[in-house]
Amino acid sequence: MTVTVLLSGCLNGDVTTSELRSAPTALPNVDLALSRYGATGSAWMAGMWQADVLADAVVNDPAGPEAGRAVRTMMTVGVGAVTDPLPSVQALIDQIVSEPDWLDRDRLDRASDVLVRYTAQWGLVLGAASLLAGAENWIAAKPLLLTGRYGAQPAVRSIEVGEWLAGVVRPGGMAIDGPGFQHTVRVRMIHAHVRKHILAKADWDLAAWGAPIPQPYMAFTLAEFGHISLAAMEKLGVRLRDDELEDIYHLWRYVGHVIGVVDDLNPVTASDHVRIEELYSLTAPGPDGYSRDFVKALTEDYLAPQLATILPGTAAWRERSARSLMYGMSRVFLGDAAADALGIPDGSAKHLVRILRPALSLTDRTRLRVHGREKVTARGYVHRERELARLKAENSMTHDLVDAVPGAVGGTS
Question: Distance between CA 145 and CA 151 in Å, rounded?
Answer without folding.
Answer: 8
